[in-house]
């Protein structure tokens, strides 16, 4: 009788758990998991080689909560609970936190944060590639003495190759900060300066890419209309070019590359992209959309579509690595940010996963003994994970159960939400009832607390992941512009071009391992001596 009662009770419990969407977590040897991590840490050594190559991955808006949600989302897509999943760059041996505030803003924009990363200098809101003496829209302050040199400029000065790959417009804030200098990130093409009555002779960002930075060998992303005159019509979507100065910057780019004797290609779709042979190509300009490239969930993969971030990264590396002196490549997952701004969390998380694929491809194509790879974000978003959902609960679903933190309005809510953004429907009284709503759809807009047209950035620190030469310098909690200094030092360029005399060690050498073992033994000896000393005091 007691057995039947116990069995019935257990069946009720299981049934209740299943109804609540609870997933029974897999058995985990937590002790072994921690021990393995500890042993791995004890065997860790430093690679002090010169960084011949550097690849900087910027997940635009990829804060800590985004990384967490993306790893869970990835695991759940693979049929796992999700929380235990690891993104490829989370395996990197060195991790730090980056303080993203700008010179004049507690919560920054992408122009000033990207400038900090690229140039090693914190600057003001909306400023691209200038120091803090320049304020938004002040064209007269665009002087030579206020200009900052980016890591791309330093690599070019050292005779190394450079490239920029992004899913945003090539002239957008983050990629622009790698090559341009502008008192306003919005000055992407000439007509903007005229429309806003900017006084002075400031150059637009697209113009600077072609005329002032023609050394860049690979530039791929969106934003065709910024390069074409308004007398032309885009062959893909029928939109007009935006330039009013009559310049066709695509033709000008081709002319510049021909003058340099480079075998160059201009491509606008996947078919043309796929036909690029890195072995016979020296430079590429890829403009795959009139504005930003498509979200991964929408991407047209056919010949008339566009390549993925992973594919662009692979092509760029294969072209740039032909330079025996080395290369620098910026890879931006630009649409992570846009998904968050629209409160469309699924789109943002899908962008993180395609960004991860690009990181994985870069690791495969390079030698970690000579290539420093850094993965970070320019800033975060007001994106949070909350409630007390069961382990394995759909990260895009409702927080389940609501037993421990029921909403005061008696309505369900999702595990992930936003502090502000378009997701708050303020045309109705109270919060929208999302019972029965498919919160996992590609276009679902997460609820937000404050109604604004475009969700804002977040001000908390963001992670930095690093592997390769001098990656151990990525540690602790650092100011964001510190990353720019690490890259210059690791590659022996720019400010640190005279600091090239450093000990070169094999990170897997026995001597390095012996040093760690000796240090560990020394700690034990000091500990024993400390105990003996304490005993003597008594």
Automatic annotation (TrEMBL):
Entry binding sites for Mg(2+): 60, 172, 174, 332
Active site: 110 (phosphoserine intermediate)
InterPro entries xrefs: Alkaline_phosphatase, Alkaline_phosphatase_core_sf
Top-level taxon of the source organism: Eukaryota
Binding site for Zn(2+): 60, 337, 341, 378-379, 457
Cellular component aspect of the GO annotation: plasma membrane; side of membrane
UniProt-listed Enzyme Commission number(s): 3.1.3.1
Compartment(s) of residence: Cell membrane; Extracellular vesicle membrane
GO MF term list: alkaline phosphatase activity; metal ion binding
Signal peptide, first to last residue: 1-21
Chief localisation class: membrane
Cofactor(s) recorded in Swiss-Prot or TrEMBL: Zn(2+); Mg(2+)
GO biological process: biomineral tissue development
Lipid bilayer topology: Lipid-anchor; GPI-anchor
Record text on subunit structure and interactions: Homodimer.
Family label: Belongs to the alkaline phosphatase family.
Name assigned to this protein: Alkaline phosphatase, tissue-nonspecific isozyme
The species this protein was found in: Mytilus galloprovincialis
């Amino acid at each position: 009788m007691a057995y039947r009662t116990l069995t019935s009770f257990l069946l009720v419990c299981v049934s209740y758990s299943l109804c609540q969407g609870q997933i029974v977590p897999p058995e985990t040897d937590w002790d072994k998991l921690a021990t393995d991590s500890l042993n791995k840490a004890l065997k860790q050594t430093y690679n002090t080689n010169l960084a011949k190559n550097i690849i900087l991955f910027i997940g635009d808006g990829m804060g800590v909560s985004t990384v967490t949600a993306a790893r869970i989302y990835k695991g759940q897509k693979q049929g796992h609970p999700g929380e235990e999943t690891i993104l490829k760059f989370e395996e990197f041996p060195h991790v730090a936190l980056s303080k993203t505030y700008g010179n004049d803003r507690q919560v920054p924009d992408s122009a000033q944060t990207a400038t900090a990363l690229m140039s090693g200098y914190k600057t003001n809101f909306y400023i691209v590639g200038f120091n803090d003496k320049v304020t938004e829209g002040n064209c007269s302050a665009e002087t030579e003495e206020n200009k900052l040199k980016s890591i791309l400029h330093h690599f070019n000065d050292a005779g190394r190759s450079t490239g920029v790959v992004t899913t945003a417009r090539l002239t957008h804030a983050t990629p622009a900060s790698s090559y341009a200098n502008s008192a306003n990130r919005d000055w992407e093409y000439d007509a903007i300066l005229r429309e806003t009555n900017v006084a002075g002779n400031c150059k637009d960002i697209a113009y600077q890419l072609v005329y002032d930075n023609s050394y860049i060998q690979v530039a791929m992303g969106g934003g065709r209309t910024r390069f074409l005159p308004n007398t032309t019509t885009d062959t893909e979507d029928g939109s007009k070019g935006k330039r009013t100065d009559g310049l066709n910057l695509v033709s000008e780019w081709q002319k510049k590359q021909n003058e340099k004797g480079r075998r160059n290609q201009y491509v606008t779709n996947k078919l043309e992209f796929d036909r690029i042979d890195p072995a016979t190509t020296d430079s590429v300009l890829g403009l795959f959309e009139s504005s930003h490239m498509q979200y991964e969930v929408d991407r047209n993969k056919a010949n008339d579509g566009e390549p993925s971030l992973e594919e662009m990264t692979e092509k760029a590396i294969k072209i740039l690595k032909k330079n025996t002196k080395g290369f620098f490549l910026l890879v931006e997952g630009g649409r992570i940010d846009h998904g968050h701004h629209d409160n469309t969390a699924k789109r943002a998380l899908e962008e993180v996963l395609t960004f991860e694929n690009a990181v994985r491809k870069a690791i495969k194509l390079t030698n970690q003994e000579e290539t420093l790879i850094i993965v970070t974000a320019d800033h975060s978003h007001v994106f949070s994970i909350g409630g007390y959902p069961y382990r394995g609960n759909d990260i895009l679903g409702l927080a389940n159960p609501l037993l421990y933190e029921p909403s005061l309005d008696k309505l369900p809510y999702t595990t992930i939400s936003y502090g502000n953004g378009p997701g708050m429907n303020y045309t109705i009284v109270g919060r929208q009832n999302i019972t029965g709503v498919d919160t996992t759809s590609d276009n679902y807009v997460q609820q937000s607390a404050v109604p604004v047209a475009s969700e804002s950035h977040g001000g908390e620190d963001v992670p930095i992941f690093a592997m390769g030469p001098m990656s151990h310098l990525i540690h602790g909690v650092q100011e964001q512009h510190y990353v720019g200094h690490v890259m210059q030092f690791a590659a022996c360029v720019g400010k640190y071009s005279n600091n090239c005399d450093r000990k070169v060690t094999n990170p897997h050498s026995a001597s390095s391992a012996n040093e760690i073992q000796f240090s560990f033994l020394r700690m034990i000896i000091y500990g024993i001596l400390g105990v003996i000393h304490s005993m003597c005091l008594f």
